[in-house]
C-alpha cells in the first residue's frame, strides 16, 4: 500500500501591488505597537472610561511569565501553581489595552483583527462591547470587528488573558505572545485561510498548479469581477498567469480557482528551499479590489512501508527532534528572528525535521522552516477528552476541538515545510472504543481540509491492543517503543512508523532502528532544544515535586537554552553525518548537579554526565574517564603529545570510545582514521586564567523596525582565547543607541536569576544577551563589564 501526497505549498504574506490602481491602505498591517499592559486582574478593565495612563506601554510579542514576579528579581518561585511542569513560573491574569484610529475613509470596508496566539483563555472587547472568547492558547484566530469600531474616531480594544492554575505539562508563557494584525478589506475579498494550492503534478519537468480560493462577499453584492492569478520566480519574472471572469450571485462565499502550469520548476527541498510567489488579485473596472501575495514551494511527498518517506521522489530518513514553542530566555515571545535563529541552529546541528510538540506553532516559525528547508510535523493537542491537570484543555476539548483543529490545518496547509498533521500526543485511554472513535473522527475531519498529507499522532505505551487506535492513522508515531518495530511490522506489513519521541541516552539504538528498517522513516529526539518546564527530567528524572526547586529547565535538549550544542548533539552527529566526526567529552569527578536518590528506573531522559572541557584543578594525576564520540573506524587519543592508545570503533561501542586518563593540564587530542589514513582530529585544551571578555554577535547588522534581534554571546577567555568553563562571574551590560535589552540568560538549569535585568552571571564561562532593535538608523554599542577584567564592547549597525 502506498500513500502519495503532492502539493504546491505557500505562506501568505500580503503587500501593496505596484500594478493597477489600488487604495493606499495596506490590506494587512502589524497591530503590535503601543499596547498598554496591567499585570493582575482589574475591575472593568475593558471600559473606555478606565484611566489607563499609568499602565505600562509595551510592544508585542509579550510574555509576562518570563518577567520578574512583582516585588522580586526573578520569574521563579517554589510556590508557583505551575510547579515542576511550568518550571516554577507564574501565570495569573493580565490585561492589555490598545487605543487605535480607523480613518473615516475606511467606512464601508471590513475591519478585522487577528491574533496568532494568546495564552490563554482570552476575552476581547472593542469599545466596551464583548467580541469573543478564545480559550486555546496555541491557535490563531481572527475577529471581524467592523460593527464594533467607530470610523473617523479613536477606538479601544481590550484583552483579558487568564492563565490560571496548572493547565499544561510545560512552560506556556502568558499573554499576547505572538504577532497581531489589523486587516482592512473591501466587502468582497479573499477569505482568510481560504486559499489552498495543490499540484496534481510536481516534477522537475513541470508542475500543474491548482489555486483554489474562497471569496468572502459580506454584502452579497452581485456582478462580475476578474480573478487574476500569477506565479513569479525570485527574479520577479512571471512563469504562469491566468485570469477568469467570476459572476457573483448573492452568496456570502464563492469558491473560485485556476489551474496553471509551471515549466521546469525549481522543486522545494531541504537543500534547495526555493520559494516562488503567487499573486492573487480581484479586479473590477480596472481597479484592484483585493490581492494577496503568497510565497510558494513546489514539491511532492510520499510515504510507504517499502520506500519510507520520499521528498520529490527520493527516499530520505527524518533526522528529527521535538521542540516546544518557547524561545529560551525570551520565554514564549515569538519574534520572527528568534524563531528563525532556532531553525538555523537546529539545521546546523544536523536536524532536517521537527515535531512541533505538542501544539500549533507561530506562523513565524513555519515561515522560517519554509525559507531554510526544515520539515515539520504540525501537532494539535497534548490531550483530548481526558487531561493531565484540572485546568487544562481537556475541559474544553469536546466543544472546541473542531474549531482549533480547523485553525491549525487551514492556516498551515500551504507551507511546504509541513509534511504531516499530528492530531495528538500520548492520548489517555487510547485502547477504549470511546477514544478510538475520537481518533477516527479527528482524522476524518483533517481530511476534509487537506488530503495531501498523512495524519499521525504520537502514541506511547503501545501494545497489541493499541491497533484499533492506530488504524485510522496514515503514519504511526511511536513514543519510546523501539522494541515494537519488528514485531508490529510482522503483524501489519503496511504500517509506516517513526519514533515520535526517543531518548538521547539511546540515540545509537534508535537511529539503527531507523537505518535498518524501511518502514521506520525517522527518529525524533526528546528534545532537540532545551526548554523551560518539566524541570530537571534530564537530570533528576521522575518522580518530581517541589523539592527539586530551583531547577526550572528540562535539561534534556541537544541544544541548551542559549542554543549551544550539548555533548549529546555531537554523539547524534556521528550517527547522522556522512563526513568523519569526532568529539571529546570528559566525565567530571564530581557530578555536575546534586543527584536524585529517588529517581525511577524507567525515567531515562537523562544523558551521561559529561563536559567538553579539560580543566580539573586539584585532580592532577587522578584518572578521568575520557570518551570520544566518533563515526570513524579507529581513534587514537593523545595527552600532551603522548599516545594513550588506538581503539577500534566496533559495533558494541556504539560510536563511544572510552579511555581512563590521569589528569594533567594541557591538551587532549583525538586523531581519527579510516582505512588506515588520518581523516580528522578533535582537541580539548585546558584554559588558563581568564584574561578578557569576548563578545560575538550572530548578526552585526539588524533592521530598525522595533522587532529585529541580535544575539550576543559573551565568553570569558584566557590569553589564548580559550573559554574557561569554570568561570562564573557577574556581567553588567549596557547599551548605547536606539535599542533595548530584550533578554539575558546563561543556560544554567538551576539559575533563578532575572531574564530581563541588565546583568547576569556566566555559567560554564558564558552567557547570552539579546538586543531588540529600535526604529532609527545608527550604531548600537553593547558594553560588558566584569570585575577585574578589561571592558569589552561590540557594535551593531541598525538600518531602516
Describe this structure in words.
With 800 residues, the chain is mainly beta. It has 5 domains: 150 residues, Jelly Rolls, CATH 2.60.120; 109 residues, Sandwich (Immunoglobulin-like); 215 residues, TIM Barrel; 145 residues, Immunoglobulin-like (Sandwich), CATH 2.60.40; 107 residues, Immunoglobulins (Immunoglobulin-like). Helix content is 11%, strand content 40%. It is built from 8 helices and 45 strands. Strands 22-23-24-25-26-27-28-29 form an 8-stranded parallel barrel, surrounded by 4 helices. α1 packs across α2 and α3 packs parallel to α4. The chain is globular and about 90 Å long. It starts with a strand and ends with a strand. One of its GO terms (biological process) is carbohydrate metabolic process. Keywords: Glycosidase, Hydrolase. GO terms for molecular function: hydrolase activity, hydrolyzing O-glycosyl compounds.
Features:
mainly beta; 8 helices; globular; 800 residues; eight-stranded parallel β-barrel; 40% strand; disordered N terminus; TIM Barrel
Assembly state (oligomeric): single chain
What is the CA–CA distance across the termini? 54 Å
Q: What characteristic shape results from the CA principal axes? A: globular
Helix content: 10-25%
Protein name: Glycosyl hydrolase family 2, sugar binding domain protein
Domain DUF4982: 621-679
GO biological process, one term: carbohydrate metabolic process
Domain Glycoside hydrolase family 2 catalytic: 308-472
